[in-house]
């Protein structure tokens, strides 16, 4: 799958670059010599080959266990991005695309040309040579800065020694997996497999606070200076390309269209959730005062813990009660079985397939015996690996040429002598990320590489994943895999009903927290970086959008990894959720395992990949434009 030595990886990367440049040369010389179809094949191959090299480098940098290979992948990414910039600023390529006659072309191909011309102009191809030269320099530098920002987060795993008795409240399987060391103390880390259970269940305020603070020191202090460079270079690049701010540049080609529209959307969502947030927080403060009558506020490290107490005491639901029904192996099989049933697929294990680590599982995806693609599951944490949850591309599919291959990269607890139990939130994450994987595979059978898989506007890409989350509450769906790890009994309907009722609590707090993240990503990219103090902006926006005060000496932005990849557009998660809630109205909540609407959804939304605008995909499926009603109803439910 990934070459075994840094030298082989580098050679493969450069071979891809050579193929891309050769295809570009043929396309540049195509006017008057090649038919539109033949010319566009060269154009798509040039940029598609770069995409393949970039995807493989990103995957290797984030998952490979060999540090030398990860470093080779970083260098490859720099070279690929430089080559992509080189092609995007090539006036000869732009003129050749402009010369392609579009009359008689099918809609998807016309859309390919339309978007290609737009992307050339967004890259600065029509600027003077001095400007294009500076754009090249900035893009190369931004690639290196982004890598540095992410590496400083990934490699900064902090540790907290605690006494075994301070783990009171944590699940027994967690405590068994964290035995005392030679000093008699237990070592906790800032990896999510430790952090999330501790802030959720640990009864010791000292431990929760200490780990919470450590978590917000990851990447600090190095990333403060890195972020300053990142924001400064992005602002300069945006101005060179005719935009007032990076936020303006980053939103211009999205569904939302402008930074003003993004800011207005954030305020609309924040206003819609304000009443619910205040009610949620009042319950949190009331619960804290049950332990501390003099409490005047709730601290960040108390929030998740107190929310669990409210759910247990007011709604009769303790999250630990449902964990034994979500053993990792059964959940994994459940995700495979449910999606196979909905979308008419089969997953066939490929035990001998090349892979980068022994824990990675490989499956071929088939439909009626016909190969549709391949998926890789890299599901447990290890040193040097990406710390969160995401779908990565191994290969983009092109009809008649190659099948799509996608990778699920997660950090769920690792099964060992004891079974690995997941939180219900982990099950949600599993379904969500698998939604991206399905989109990549099912949308990977189009004519053009540029339109393969998850190739829609960026602020739509989360919608298919958020839609798949709806199945984690469906009793019929859970009955297929949610069985007690010891008794094998299915999750009781009464327990699930209590879990659903409890899940409604805290929704206002969660939405406003998401709007804090969205506003932060936008504001950091629309203010003057020369006069910007990001730490002060974090404090300002946290206290505007959430009821929790900023804690001096913490630096959330130093480990806010989305500031690299998503830059100014974190709003896209909630924008996509508005669409996902609307898409869900086409399904029957009483019969979610009915394959009929799922197949119609697959054909209308997933299979087209990026062959048309996302708004058109929604119209094809719903028969109308997106509405806010379903999201508003969800926000007020319960």
TrEMBL record:
Descriptive protein name: Zn-dependent oligopeptidase
Family: Belongs to the peptidase M3 family.
Spans annotated as Disordered: 170-190
Pfam families cross-referenced by the UniProt entry: Peptidase_M3
Keywords of this entry: Hydrolase, Metal-binding, Metalloprotease, Protease, Zinc
Residue ranges occupied by any Peptidase M3A/M3B catalytic domain in the UniProt entry: 199-632
Cofactor annotation remark: Binds 1 zinc ion.
Species per Swiss-Prot/TrEMBL record: Anaeromyxobacter paludicola
InterPro entries associated with the record: MetalloPept_cat_dom_sf (IPR024079), Neurolysin/TOP_dom2 (IPR024077), Pept_M3A_M3B (IPR045090), Pept_M3A_M3B_dom (IPR001567)
Entry-linked PANTHER family: PROTEASE M3 THIMET OLIGOPEPTIDASE-RELATED, SACCHAROLYSIN
Necessary cofactors: Zn(2+)
SUPFAM superfamilies reported in the protein's UniProt record: Metalloproteases ('zincins'), catalytic domain
């Amino acid at each position: 799958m990934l070459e075994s030595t840094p030298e082989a990886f580098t050679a493969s990367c450069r071979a891809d670059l050579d193929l891309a440049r050769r295809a570009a040369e043929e396309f540049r010389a195509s006017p008057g010599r090649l038919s539109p179809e033949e010319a566009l094949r060269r154009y798509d191959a040039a940029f598609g080959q770069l995409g393949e090299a970039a995807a493989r480098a990103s995957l290797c940098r984030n998952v490979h266990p060999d540090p030398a290979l990860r470093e080779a992948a970083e260098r490859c990414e720099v070279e690929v991005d430089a080559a992509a910039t080189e092609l995007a600023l090539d006036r000869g390529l732009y003129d050749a695309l402009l010369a392609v006659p579009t009359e008689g072309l099918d809609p998807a191909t016309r859309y390919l040309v339309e978007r290609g011309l737009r992307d050339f102009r967004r890259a600065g191809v029509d600027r003077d040579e001095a400007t294009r030269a500076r754009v090249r320099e900035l893009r190369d530098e931004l690639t290196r800065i982004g890598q540095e920002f992410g590496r400083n987060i990934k490699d900064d795993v902090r540790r907290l020694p605690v006494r075994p008795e301070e783990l009171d409240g944590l699940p027994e399987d967690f405590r068994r997996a964290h035995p005392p060391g030679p000093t008699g103390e237990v070592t906790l880390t800032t990896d999510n497999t430790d952090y999330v259970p501790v802030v959720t269940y640990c009864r010791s305020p000292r431990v929760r606070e200490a780990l919470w603070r450590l978590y917000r020191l990851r990447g600090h202090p190095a990333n403060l200076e890195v972020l300053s460079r990142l924001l400064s270079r992005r602002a300069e690049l945006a101005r060179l390309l005719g935009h007032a701010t990076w936020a303006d540049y980053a939103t211009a080609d999205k569904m939302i269209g402008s930074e003003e529209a993004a800011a207005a959307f954030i305020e609309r969502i924040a206003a819609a959730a304000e009443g619910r947030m205040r009610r949620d927080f009042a319950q949190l403060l009331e619960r804290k005062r049950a332990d501390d009558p003099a409490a005047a506020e709730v601290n960040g490290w108390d929030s998740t813990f107190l929310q669990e107490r409210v759910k247990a005491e007011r709604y009769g639901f303790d999250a630990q009660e449902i964990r034994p029904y979500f053993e990792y192996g059964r959940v994994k099989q459940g995700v495979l079985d449910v999606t196979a049933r909905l979308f008419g697929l089969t997953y066939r294990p490929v035990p001998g397939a090349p892979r980068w680590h022994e824990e990675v599982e490989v499956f071929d995806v088939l439909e009626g015996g016909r190969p549709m693609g391949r998926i890789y599951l890299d599901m447990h944490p290890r040193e040097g690996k990406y710390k969160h949850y995401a779908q990565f591309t191994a290969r983009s599919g092109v009809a008649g040429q190659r099948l799509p291959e996608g990778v699920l990269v997660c950090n769920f607890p690792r099964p060992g002598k004891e079974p690995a139990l997941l939180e219900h939130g982990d099950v949600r994450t599993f379904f969500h990320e698998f939604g991206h994987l399905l989109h990549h595979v099912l949308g990977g059978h189009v004519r053009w590489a540029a339109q393969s898989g998850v190739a829609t506007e960026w602020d739509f890409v989360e919608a298919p994943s958020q839609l798949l989350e709806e199945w984690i509450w469906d009793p019929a769906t859970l009955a297929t895999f949610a069985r007690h790890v010891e008794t094998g009994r299915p999750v009781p309907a009464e327990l699930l009903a209590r879990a659903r009722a409890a899940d409604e609590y805290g929704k206002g707090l969660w939405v406003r927290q998401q709007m804090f993240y969205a506003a932060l990503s936008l504001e950091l990219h629309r203010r003057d970086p020369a006069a910007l103090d990001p730490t002060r902006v974090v404090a300002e926006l946290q206290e505007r959008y959430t009821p929790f005060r900023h804690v001096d000496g913490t630096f959330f932005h130093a480990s806010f990894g989305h500031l690299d990849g998503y830059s100014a557009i974190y709003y896209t998660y909630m924008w996509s959720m508005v669409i996902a809630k609307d898409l869900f109205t086409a399904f029957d909540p009483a019969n979610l395992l009915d394959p009929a609407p799922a197949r119609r959804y697959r054909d209308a939304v997933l299979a087209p990949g990026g062959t048309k605008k996302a708004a058109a995909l929604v119209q094809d499926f719903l028969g109308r434009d997106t509405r806010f009603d379903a999201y508003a109803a969800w926000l007020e439910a319960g």
